[in-house]
Amino acid sequence: MHHKFLVTKWRSPTLWFLPAALLLTACNFVGYKSYNGKTMGTYYRIVADCQVAPSQSQIEEVLGSVDAVMSNYREDSIVEVFNRYQVGSWFTVDESLVYVATVAHQVSELTSGAFDITVKPLVDAWGFGPPGATDKPTDENIQTLLEKVDYQGLEIRDDPPGLLKKQPLTIDLSGIAKGYGVDMLAELLDQSGCENYLAEIGGELRVKGVNQMGRAWEIGIESPLIPGLIQERISISHGALATTGDYRNYLDYEGVIYPHVLDAKSGSPVEHMGASVTVHMRTATEADSYATALYALGEAGLQLAEENDIAALFQHLDGRTGRLEQRATSKMKKILDD
């Protein structure tokens, strides 16, 4: 059976909804320069030890360029202009958008559509997109919108960089854009000669080297049951971590809670008992999109991650006891045991 899902995470231009968070274990960064601010409807944070520290304006210029390309909240972003573009003609885009679309396509292929950036019509209809929808969509509306969701209807061209719609569709990069933004911060830090750093956007993060104590960066994964409580700790000195969960972002229609996890086959939120999935990969772009897809797949996501040697930690609620349980793939167990 072919299923398509998307967990919508980059959803609001304010801090109303906080994503399933990867919390940096508190420590005193003496000798390390720190930066923080707002971006993509959430926050960013950097702690870095650099030869030539980048300026705050350089950091915000990088983040602004990502937002200008990928935001669904700006009518003038490249993504939104493409969404209004005609079917059947190539549309010139930024190289960054080709890269992100290519990674998204690879994740879609591996997960049989568990990650699908063309799910925007359903995201908006349920009210998880830019402000507009205020009522639960009807069954008839959902069926109509499902005809506009299919990642295979999007073609990608490297040279010159471009996208083409083979059929009417629109794209939403909320499940991957924050990760890409983190990678762009990491690239800036690398160019600045930073040997040790942590860069984070709204809980998605990437690290290199060690903290000011000369140890691997220690990251705390928040409990889905008790906000602010660290459920698990992971120590890493390279790569990226991303977490997707359903316990922070949801809608209430007439007293019924709908999590922001959409099954694009039915057009409605999924109903499994998953609480969160945390993924460790080389880049935050990959970690962000795979955390999204694996969470949406539920039980099947654990098996897929194991078969493809993906480091992933699954937290889920036991339907009988209400207790939180967690399971890790073999690759993630090795990281946790280090």
Could you describe the 3D structure shown?
- There is one protein chain.
- Helix 6 (177-191) packs antiparallel against helix 7 (284-297) and helix 7 packs across helix 8.
- The protein has helices spanning 56-70, 78-83, 95-110, 120-126, 139-146, 177-191, 284-297, 299-307, 330-337, and strands at residues 5-7, 22-24, 33-39, 42-50, 91-92, 154-157, 162-165, 194-201, 204-208, 217-222, 230-236, 238-245, 250-253, 256-259, 261-263, 268-269, 274-281, 311-317, 324-328.
- The protein has an eight-stranded antiparallel β-sheet with strand order 3-4-8-9-12-17-18-19. It has a three-stranded antiparallel β-sheet with strand order 1-15-16, with helices on both faces.
- Helices cover 29% and strands 29% of the residues.
